Amino acid sequence: MNQIHPTALVSPKAELADDVAVGPHTIIEDGVVIGKGTQIASSVLLATGAVIGANVKISHGAVIGTLPQDLKFGGERTKAVVGDNTVIREYVTINRGTKAHGEASVGSNCMIMAYAHVAHDCIIGNNVIMANCVNLAGHVEVEDFAIIGGVVPVHQFVKIGAHCMVGGGFRVQQDICPYALVGGYPLKVVGLNAIGLKRRGFPLESIKRLEKTFKLLFFSGLNTSQAIERIKQDVEPGQEVEHILKFIGRSERGIVK
What we know:
By secondary structure, the protein is an alpha/beta fold.
């Protein structure tokens, strides 16, 4: 049975699954979909287009599904999607998509900390952590298990690779290679996120391949094209190495070196 505070405004056209809790002064508009067991705190706005998964925790003052901050938006019907078991902390804002992608999405098992912003058409993977005041511009992609430190602005159309870690307070203007540890002014790769990979159970052989790949790609003095050729010649093939090569191949803004 749902637990809806008497001061909450819940549209009869919203779809709430079982055991949803809604706090005081929260507004849930027409067409919003909320999965089983989700807990919504006080003064939250779930606007038309918000699709919330199961067992999500949404904290006070969060705003999900509002219109894109994009002058090209023409009023099309789009979504803002949050996956299962994700935590949305205080005053997070997640805008809807535009016709370019149709939705902005945050995956499952993510932690989006206070005051973070996810703009239109962003695609956030699973198990991502975004610390306080991270601001993603439109069309940003963040792959699984990435961690973004606090007060980080990310330029539109940037791609952030899986299992990487971005230090707090730095500006991200280009794509970040999967498995990288990055920081500094200007932003640069300072090494492999080896501790994170070990904690997530990556085999030692995979980590060694990645270390060799990173040495060629970032610390050899070779340009990116030369480094890729050397990696193909000198590094034993593996899933993680292939992921890096594919990521670079589809980069449009170039990668942080």
